[in-house]
Design brief:
With 389 residues, the protein is α+β, with helices and mostly antiparallel strands. The chain contains seven helices and 28 strands. The longest helix has 19 residues. Bound molecules: adenosine monophosphate (AMP) and magnesium ion (MG).
Length: 389
């Protein structure tokens, strides 16, 4: 059995980076930018008013000025502005040549075409300087996972399309005679496929393009048939059938189909029977069937692989530290990812029931508390490592 970090290293070396494609900006959120983007204009492209008010060459309380024109967003005032002049100006409008200050409209009294700057006059010019946000040539570096803020910045830079990594295509295969799809009427000894849908959701959020294939029954022929439907997937994920029971056929059938196995079994809880390798053109990961095991392995192994395939750094799930809200007992020989909840004060409570079948406990969790192998008992207030869900 190998350690979690060793397994992750082997997964990263199997994860080939995918090609790039061009997408319109409104389709780019959640995608990974693969080429740096350079601003082709200054923002703002002129000195711009930050407020509604009056542009003047010099602001002083008691000064009386004549309003000689108007500068609005999209239509600037052309012409000279003298020391006795003011230009009515609105937020976002170009500041006319010679104007040093925009006096906000609350700080003047207006009478016809005349304004009086009152002693309410505040400090500051209320002018946003040309290029104050970004200048021509400034870049957004790649690789970068694009969030909504990046999309806004790219739009302001006048970038209508971006080069992003192709979404990893993932084939999800459930195995088991007992499994039926949600919505079906299960027989007395059947259960509903659950983690397949959980993984589909997780991988969609992670930027992948998952597809749920038909459930493979626990025969070699059925499993080989479904594996034959994989088509052009970059990553094939099987769920269940990964341990060494009589009905656990994944390793055997995958080997018959030519799997170059990279490892089988990881020293972790839950998730010990994890396996991976290369199957034809695709990478394959065999996840354990227990619902919590599959979902935890999704967080710890599959999501980092999806990120790496899109060109992001090959890094494990981010770990933070948090204080325990209550004591916990010692850990066994495997790295344990315990389901827990963060409290309003930031401390974390580890749930008492940790069986790997309990989706209700996972559903109530927002953190995994990571216990190193053979970690001793921990008291309330002790610092532990966590992975946020
Ligand atoms: P296995 O690894 O096939 O022995 O499965 C371990 C446990 O997980 C069994 O109780 C299975 O019924 C259950 N299981 C396997 N695959 C799934 C799935 N896709 N959704 C929900 N439960 C599953
Ligand atoms: Mg099974």
């Amino acid at each position: 059995m190998i350690s979690v970090s060793e397994a992750l290293d082997r997964l990263f070396s199997l994860a080939a980076p995918l090609s790039a494609e061009t997408v319109p900006l409104h389709r780019a959120v959640g995608r990974v930018l693969v080429e740096p983007v350079t601003a082709r204009r200054d923002q703002p492209p002129f000195n711009a008013s930050a407020m509604d008010g009056y542009g003047v060459t010099e602001a002083a309380p008691g000064k009386r000025l004549k309003v000689i024109g108007e500068s609005a967003a999209g239509s600037s005032f052309e012409g000279p502005v003298g020391d006795a002049d003011a230009v009515r100006i609105f937020t976002g409008a170009p500041v006319p040549e010679g104007v040093t200050t925009v006096v906000i409209q609350e700080d003047v009294d207006r009478d016809g075409d005349t304004i009086l700057i009152t002693d309410r006059l505040g400090s500051g010019t209320n002018i946003r300087p040309l290029g104050g946000d970004f200048r021509v040539g400034e870049t957004i570096p790649a690789p970068r996972l694009l969030g909504p803020q990046d999309i806004a910045l790219l739009a302001a830079m006048n970038i209508p399309t971006v080069r992003v990594a192709r979404r990893p295509r993932v084939a999800l295969i459930s195995t088991g005679d007992e499994l039926v799809m949600p919505g079906e009427t299960p027989g007395p000894d059947q259960i509903i496929v659950s983690n397949t849908f959980g993984l589909h959701a997780m991988l969609t959020q992670a930027g992948a393009e998952p597809r749920i294939l038909p459930i493979a029954h626990d025969t070699e022929a059925a499993l080989a048939t479904v594996l034959g439907l994989v088509d052009d997937a970059d990553l094939v994920i099987t769920i269940g059938g990964a341990s060494v029971g009589d009905h656990d056929l994944v390793a055997k059938v995958a080997a018959q189909l030519g799997l170059e196995r990279a490892f089988h079994k990881v020293a972790m809880r839950p998730g010990k029977p994890l396996m991976s390798g290369r199957l034809g053109d695709a990478m394959m990961i065999g996840l354990p069937g227990n619902p919590v095991s599959a979902m935890v392995c999704g967080e710890i192994f599959v999501k980092p692989v999806i990120r790496a395939m899109q060109g992001l750094p090959a890094e494990p799930a981010l770990r933070e530290t948090a204080q325990l809200a209550a004591e916990i007992g010692s850990n066994g020989p495997r790295e344990h990812y315990m389901r827990g909840r963060s409290e309003p004060d930031g401390r974390v409570t580890v749930f008492g029931r940790q069986d790997s079948s309990l989706l209700s406990v996972l559903g109530a969790s927002d953190v995994l508390v990571v216990r190193p192998p053979k970690d001793g008992p921990r008291a309330a207030g002790d610092l532990v490592e966590i992975v946020r869900l």
